[in-house]
Specification:
The structure is a single chain. Helix content is 72%, strand content 0%. By secondary structure, the protein is mostly helical. It has one domain.
């Protein structure tokens, strides 16, 4: 269990970094290869950390988005089209990262004595349904 808490702390740390790196919004993200690489690396590390959690711990959290984490990371790691990869990573920043943060707040609200960051999504908050439809068409 102690190892599992350490892994959850690591995931929380990686989520904070993604938020920090993408704070300036989509335009800045798309313009910076370094920012894209940093975000992809943190998503990969979240996926790796997820695999380190004990199966017993994962079974105790059946509605945690484990599949989302694993599927997203696996798909990103095997994506060879750079433009599509950028779009998919931004989509992960907008959808998967907030979903994972919500799940962490629900299941492990205070891992290291501090609540999981509740920072705003990067950029302005448009109509999420319209954004989802636009992103699906673009991807």
């Amino acid at each position: 269990m102690d190892d599992d808490l350490q892994y959850l702390k690591e995931m929380k740390h990686r989520l904070r970094r993604i938020r920090e790196y993408t704070r300036e919004g989509r335009r800045a993200f798309m313009a910076s290869n370094m920012m894209q690489d940093a975000v992809v690396r943190n998503i990969e590390m979240i996926g790796y950390t997820w695999t380190c959690l004990s199966p017993e711990y994962r079974l105790r959290l059946p509605d945690f988005p484990w599949r989302l984490i694993g599927a997203r990371v696996d798909y990103l790691m095997h994506q060879r089209n750079p433009e599509r990869l950028r779009k998919l990573v931004w989509l992960a920043v907008r959808r998967s990262v907030p979903e994972l943060e919500r799940a962490m707040r629900k299941h492990v609200p205070e891992i290291d004595g501090m609540p999981v960051d509740r920072g705003a999504l990067p950029g302005p908050r448009p109509d999420l349904k319209a954004v989802a439809q636009r992103d699906e068409r673009a991807a």
